[in-house]
Specification:
Elements: H1 6-16, H2 23-34, H3 38-50, E1 80-87, H4 90-97, E2 104-108, H5 126-135, E3 140-144, H6 149-161, E4 168-171, H7 187-195, E5 198-199
Helix pairs in contact: 1-2
């Protein structure tokens, strides 16, 4: 296997650390970047650096926000504030929002419970969700969580967390196949799952 110069090899390894990026793809990225004007690379590096210089997350729901305040959804006075749709990540939020059916608020957990991978409730935004329900008048929580093993464990945990409250806990209709990801589910299927959500007893 040919040995690249150290700086190129380091950049290839950096790309390989991204999810879903193998070595061949990483090499193609580096080849592409090597052909770009220096100013383009400077701007690209600047954009990467500024990711950590700005706070992009909504303090209420953990969706992306343009500033340190609430996101566009949380600050929209026309949204139904009595319903919160709980999702794993922002990609799931965007997928559901694109259906045009849900008009409530969201809460991004930041993942699913996975004890094997050392992901517990305190690693997610579960406590913030609990705080929101105590400060706001919430009538329903929709658990829009992918139906895999970790997702089911998260659903069970959240159901127990709110079992003594007056909040109705609902689950997306099981038109979603077991093991599927909400992020990759088409909008029609997601819309039907929202309409047919069922209350967890």
């Amino acid at each position: 296997m040919p040995r690249y110069p150290e700086k190129i090899e380091n950049l290839i390894n950096s790309f390989c650390s991204l999810p879903g990026i193998g070595r061949k793809t990483a090499e193609r990225f580096v080849y592409f970047l090597l052909k770009q004007p220096k100013v383009s690379l400077i701007n690209f590096a600047k954009d990467l650096t500024e990711l950590h210089d700005h706070h992009f997350f909504c303090p209420d729901c953990y969706n992306f926000s343009e500033n340190e305040g609430p996101c566009a959804i949380c600050s929209n006075s026309t949204r139904d504030r009595s319903t919160i749709c709980v999702v794993e990540d922002i990609q799931d939020l965007l997928s559901i929002e694109n259906t045009g059916i849900f008009h409530g608020l969201y809460h991004v957990l930041g993942g699913k419970l996975d004890p094997i991978e050392n992901v517990f409730a305190e690693d997610l935004t579960v406590s913030k969700l609990k705080d929101r329900t105590q400060k706001e008048t919430v009538a329903e929580i929709i658990l829009a969580i992918s139906p895999d093993i970790q997702g089911e464990a998260t659903i069970i945990y959240l159901r127990k967390l709110f079992q003594d409250s007056n909040i109705k806990i609902t689950l997306l209709a099981r038109g979603l196949p077991m093991g599927s990801d909400i992020e990759y589910t088409d909008e029609v299927t997601l819309g039907n799952a929202l309409r047919g959500r069922q209350e967890l007893k």
